[in-house]
Design a protein that fits this description.
Blueprint: H1 2-30, H2 49-55, H3 58-91, H4 95-109, H5 112-125, H6 132-155, H7 160-168, H8 173-201, H9 205-210, H10 217-227, H11 232-267
Length: 268
């Protein structure tokens, strides 16, 4: 019975991976098909001209630069706000904790279009014109809550006795924060920064309402879809997937190297 369930689990896992990967394979194949339509059927020959056209698309590169700048700003601000909120919530109790936690989580449940419109209207009332700066603020308003959840989960494994011991030995609260608490939170902070970055890269609804006249990749792709999409979008996706895969491989190699060094140190 156990082997049967294990075999079913393997079959399910394989089918799930195929379900996830087939669209990516089809999308990547269209980037090399010599057809004006982004498809692999019919196959009209292998070509690299879509990558050449992509490289010559100045609007796309401007949108790409804007996307990276916005994503970096969102990641930094979301980590600061989310980490601070997690530490605050973890250090208090009672009704105020429930209220703060509910306020932070509620932003995740609000549709992106509502956040975008609300951000635009509020800052317009204050005399701030639309632009990428409003896109950053609008995205941070809900992405920071995701970072908070990651950091808050990490805080559950933190031993508060370490803080008390450090304070008893004469450490200041700033030293305790820098040398004890934050090092424990670094994995969650790193994961939160990655989540915030990629959530910002793929954001459309908030950006569409707050961007002013600036382009980001999602807005650029949307405009291309309306005007008639070509396989240059597929070429861009292939490049982004390749960068992601390389980054993931490098991270995994570094993680394994660190584990190996720690194991060798423990053995010695």
């Amino acid at each position: 019975m156990y082997k049967f369930r294990q075999r079913l689990a393997h079959i399910y896992t394989g089918m799930f991976l195929i379900y996830l990967l087939i669209p990516l394979v089809v999308m990547a194949g269209a980037a090399f098909n010599d057809s004006r339509l982004p498809s692999i059927v019919p196959w009209k020959g292998t070509t690299g001209r879509w990558f050449v056209e992509l490289a010559a698309d100045e609007r796309m590169w401007v949108a790409f630069r804007n996307t990276i700048l916005v994503a970096l700003a969102v990641a930094v601000l979301s980590v600061i706000v989310g980490t601070a909120a997690a530490i605050l919530i973890n250090s208090i109790s009672g009704r105020i904790r429930t209220v703060i936690y509910g306020m932070m989580i509620s932003t995740i449940l609000i549709p992106g279009a509502v956040i975008g419109i609300s951000t635009l209207l509020m800052w317009n009332k204050l005399g701030v014109p639309p632009g990428l700066h409003l896109s950053v603020l609008g995205q941070v308003s809900y992405i920071a809550a995701m970072v908070m959840l990651l950091v808050l989960a990490r805080l559950q494994s933190f031993d508060a006795a370490l803080e008390e011991a450090a304070l008893d030995l004469g450490a200041s609260h700033g030293q305790v924060m820098r040398r004890i608490l934050l090092p424990h939170l670094y994995p969650a902070i790193g994961a939160g920064a990655a989540v915030a970055f990629f959530q910002s890269v793929e954001n459309f609804n908030v950006t569409q309402f707050t961007r002013g006249g600036a382009d980001t990749l999602t807005v650029y792709v949307f405009s291309k879809v309306r005007a008639g999409i070509t396989p240059t979008i597929n070429a861009l996706a292939v490049i982004m997937i390749g960068i992601t895969i390389v980054a993931a491989v490098l991270y995994e190699l570094r993680r394994r190297r660190i584990e190996r060094l720690l194991a060798q140190g423990a053995a010695e």
